[in-house]
Amino acid sequence: MSEAERFDRLRLIRSPRIGPVSYRQLLARFGSAGEALRAIPMLAERGGGRAGVADAGAVEREIATSRALGARYLLMGDADYPMLLDQMEGAPPALIIKGDATLAGRPCVAMVGARNASAAACRFARTLAQDIAQRDAVVVSGLARGIDTEAHRGSIDGGTIGVIACGIDIVFPPENAALQEQVAERGLLVTEHPPGTQPLARHFPARNRIIAGLALGTVVVEAAPKSGSLITARLAGDAGREVMAVPGSPLDPRAQGCNELIRQGATLVQNAADVMEAIGGFDPRMVRQGSFDFVGEPVSSDVAEAERVAVIALLGHAAVPVDEVIRLSGLSPAVVQTVLLELELGGRLERHAGGRVSLA
């Protein structure tokens, strides 16, 4: 990949209304990020709106800032872009990393849990992470309070990856400043956000998909119902990864999420040997070898107005699966995907988890 194409790809994902799905579709249709950038205004107009592209000067400043911080970029298509993450729905087209990138290529185990974890759970998480790292696996977590913090502390000497929901120069929570610096120096720090990005609520579910995507399996140590840790576990399960949980007392609300996961079929784990046994059954043939190839997002270069009207008529403010829109419209996937892309660029479509869409 040329430096010009790398720059254009970063500029493409930084452009308004461009997400991982539209990024893939644009590259599949136009073959290069430069051509895609030139086509965005036209496609947005067909979708009933207007859209610009990211300012080249702003992208240049972002790159300069990242380099000054000692960070670098991993783009889809790079040989060292993590292959397991490449398989995730909505995987980030661009990562900013600081530290040892080879850690992402080793067997990884995600460990997540409650921010207000009990003292016993924190101690268990730290010991479990240390034992996993001593078995030549890398522990991935989110540098949050509680279980995440202890997972990194336990695995810092053997291999740890911290995924954050903000810029690489931002620390959250503030009390983990020293730990985040250690992860960047002795492990690997990962984000999809430009420097200076503050941690907003919507960034955390997106961060969770990276945590789950990097790992062969996810261990939940302590979690209340409807917690972010359970989101990570669900994402791991949806991707065909191993979901593991540490059982807890039914009298402790912080254990209810883990106990419910086990009831639903998650693997009960009590030590590092259990974890390694669970991920040992993962078939590496499930992972596509080589870099991202942009296959699998059909788009069309020609859509009739009647086809566009037919697709829009099937959409509403309730999210529906794209497959259902294709079935009901009777149109080809390429035509439907193109109309959805145009609507998204025009600001009239929102994408949701699970391949669902709705009118904005």
The percent of residues in helical segments reads 40-55%
Shape: globular
**Uncertain residue ranges:** 288-296
**CATH fold-level name of the largest domain:** Rossmann fold
Strand portion, in percent?
Answer: 5-15%
H/E element sequence: HHHHEHEEHEHEHEHEHEHEHHEHHEE
Provide the number of structural domains. 2
Give the strand tally: 12
Radius of gyration: 21 Å
**Helix/strand/pairing category:** alpha/beta
Q: Average pLDDT value?
A: 92
Main sheet properties:
9 strands, mixed
Domain Smf/DprA SLOG: 73-279
InterPro entries: DprA, DprA_WH, DrpA_SLOG, WH-like_DNA-bd_sf
Domain DprA winged helix: 300-355
Protein name: DNA-processing protein DprA
Give short descriptive properties of this protein.
single chain, about 350 residues, alpha/beta, Arc Repressor Mutant, subunit A, Rossmann fold, 2 domains, nine-stranded mixed beta sheet, three-stranded antiparallel beta sheet, 15 helices, 12 strands, globular
